[in-house]
Amino acid sequence: MSKNNRIVLIIMLAIGAAIMGYSLRNVNMKLLFHDILTINVWWLLVALLCIVAYLVIEGIIVKVFVGNRVQGFTFKDALRVPLVEQLGNGITPFASGGQPFQIMAMMQAGVEPGYAAAILLMKFVVYQFVIVLNFFVALIIGSHFLADKVHVLKYLMIFGFLIHFAVIVGLILIMFWYQFTKRLTNIALKIVKVVGFGGKEKRLERYQRISKWADVRLHNFHVESVRMTSNISLMVKGLILTSFQLMFYYSIPYFILLALGYTHINYVLITSLHVLIVMVISIFPIPGGSGGAEVSFQSLFSSFINVPTDLVLAMFIWRFLTYYFGMFAGMVAFNIRADRISNPQDWHNQKEE
Questions:
Q1: What parts of the sequence cross the membrane (predicted)?
Q2: Burial of 173 (0-12, 13-18, 19+ CB in 10 A)
């Protein structure tokens, strides 16, 4: 973990502490401690198991997508990938560091970077597809609630959905319309060459370097994605596992509310609202969506939790499980040595067969 990443991590923890302090400004601390002491530990444990299941299933998905093309790639190596991803997501704007951190984790295990990128991008496509599908269902279920309770968040959610949808369209173009995508990329790079910073020679050198890098990445992703999508059973496994993975994640607020004694709640509505919150968080540029995440949670769940101390406590627990838990687990995984595969070139040999 680089010095800059450590600095960002410290800043994010400081922001989290500041948000926590601000949220507690009007809270009766005696009531808050009473809520903590009377919380149902068993339901809280179920919420914790949900985030653990979410991470473990993602490790299984990585192992499934790698398959037998990389001999010696263990489940320990596969599980390190989503844990390190959580750390990367948590310290970078728009969770942009998740993919590079995952590639790094697979490279540490001996997997060739181009192949690792292709696997992770395919996993990302499946993940985005399931997220968008869940959003459609959640919007239908929670539309009346949103119309009555929150107006601004509704538009933020739709904007978040459009971003996710655009990402899927872009990736699908790379997968199945390679020449068209390559032309669009070349046009975009030529614009950068003309309007970029620096002198003419510097812009040309930068253009050639980026163009070569983009051509290799586009080609590798196209080839591997065509191979993977032609394997119907692999894609079905990925879709099913990702659906279960997200089901556990989206269920976390429901079990937190049960732990606080709110038993007369609708599971489908609560999980649907959590789907919508995730969409809002995705459009905030601050790492982890800090600020926007807390406001969104309190705005949507204040109708179910009528005691201010309970609402703040529920928000704290939810934020810890869905954000800080993954970051801390990622820090541990980052410092665990990866199992090196027996032959780093195995995947090349199998690819040629």
A1: 6-24, 36-57, 115-141, 153-178, 238-260, 267-286, 311-334
A2: middle
